[in-house]
């Protein structure tokens, strides 16, 4: 009986310990999940190499893992990838997701591009089908290096084909003959230039001499300009000052003369109105006096001084 009771006690203790371990494991799991956040990413490209449990990195730092991968039923072109990241990961506005492949065949989800001071990516108070179709925030995507190359491969092939066709059309027999002629002309031109090498060298030497002479002439012109400026400053300026003084003196003299004319104008008017008529009468009287004196002189010449006193006697007449 005692042995059986001991086994029962040991079994009960083991069951209690197992239950406590299970509760502790569940609590640890809940604690770990509470410090993580979930996001959806919709990739419009192949997710080859990506699987459940693949690493999620932020700027190269492991910060979470892929939780689920599935085609998006509303649009099969997209693949919905559910990821979980640590709560301290700065999933802010501007963050984008890309798929990075590796040589081992495994791929990772790379997050980067957050802006400093931006708000975290979150669902609005009333999420809709475009922003949070499955109740968790959506991280936008951008094409990675390999994805971009693969997506642009058809365009690159088309452009390469077009370039090949154009090159084929360019390298026809006629164009090849034209190119050969151009090369021949280039060779002849090179030969002619090589033959004229000494003449070109002499021309260059003369050009250098001409440039040097032009430089010397410009320096001499500069010196001449400086000398001319000195002469103007030393000789012309004093002369201009003297000329200004002479002009000022002449202006003062003219003003004095104008004042004298103004003062003499009343006397001139009196002279012209009174003195000149009297002078005219005096001249007329002098003319009359001169005429009378001329007649007296004629009488004296003809009859002598007695003619001034009496009449002239007639000569005696004797008959024959």
From TrEMBL:
<dbReference type="Pfam" id="PF02470">
    <property type="entry name" value="MlaD"/>
</dbReference>
<protein>
    <submittedName>
        <fullName>MlaD family protein</fullName>
    </submittedName>
</protein>
<keyword id="KW-0472">Membrane</keyword>
<feature type="domain" description="Mce/MlaD">
    <location>
        <begin position="42"/>
        <end position="112"/>
    </location>
</feature>
<dbReference type="InterPro" id="IPR003399">
    <property type="entry name" value="Mce/MlaD"/>
</dbReference>
<keyword id="KW-1133">Transmembrane helix</keyword>
<feature type="transmembrane region" description="Helical">
    <location>
        <begin position="6"/>
        <end position="29"/>
    </location>
</feature>
<keyword id="KW-0812">Transmembrane</keyword>
């Amino acid at each position: 009986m005692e042995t059986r009771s001991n086994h029962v006690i040991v079994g009960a203790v083991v069951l209690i310990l197992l239950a406590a371990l299970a509760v502790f494991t569940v609590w640890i799991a809940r604690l770990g999940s509470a410090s993580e956040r979930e996001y959806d990413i919709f990739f419009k490209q192949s997710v080859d190499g990506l699987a459940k449990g693949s690493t999620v990195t932020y700027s190269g730092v492991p910060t979470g893992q892929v939780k689920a991968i599935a085609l998006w039923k509303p649009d099969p072109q997209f693949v919905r990838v559910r990821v979980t990241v640590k709560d301290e990961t700065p999933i802010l506005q501007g963050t984008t997701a890309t798929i990075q492949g590796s040589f081992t065949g495994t791929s990772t989800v790379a997050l980067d591009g957050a802006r400093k001071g931006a708000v975290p990516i979150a669902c609005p108070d009333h999420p809709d089908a475009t922003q949070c179709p499955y109740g968790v925030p959506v991280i936008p995507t951008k094409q990675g290096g390999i994805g971009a190359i693969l997506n642009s491969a058809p365009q690159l092939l088309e452009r390469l084909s077009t370039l090949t066709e154009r090159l084929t059309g360019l390298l026809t027999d006629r164009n090849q003959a034209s190119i050969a002629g151009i090369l021949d002309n280039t060779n002849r031109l090179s030969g002619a230039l090589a033959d004229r090498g000494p003449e070109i060298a002499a021309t260059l030497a003369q050009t250098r001499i001409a440039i040097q002479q032009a430089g010397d002439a410009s320096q001499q012109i500069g010196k001449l300009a400086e000398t001319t400026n000195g002469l103007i400053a030393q000789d012309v300026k004093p002369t201009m000052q003297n000329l200004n003084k002479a002009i000022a003196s002449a202006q003062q003299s003219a003003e004095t003369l104008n004042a004298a004319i103004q003062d003499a104008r009343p006397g001139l008017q009196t002279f012209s109105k009174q003195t000149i008529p009297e002078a005219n009468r005096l001249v007329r009287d002098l003319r009359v006096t001169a005429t009378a004196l001329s007649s007296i002189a004629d009488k004296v010449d003809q009859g002598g001084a007695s003619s001034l006193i009496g009449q002239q006697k007639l000569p005696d007449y004797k008959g024959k």
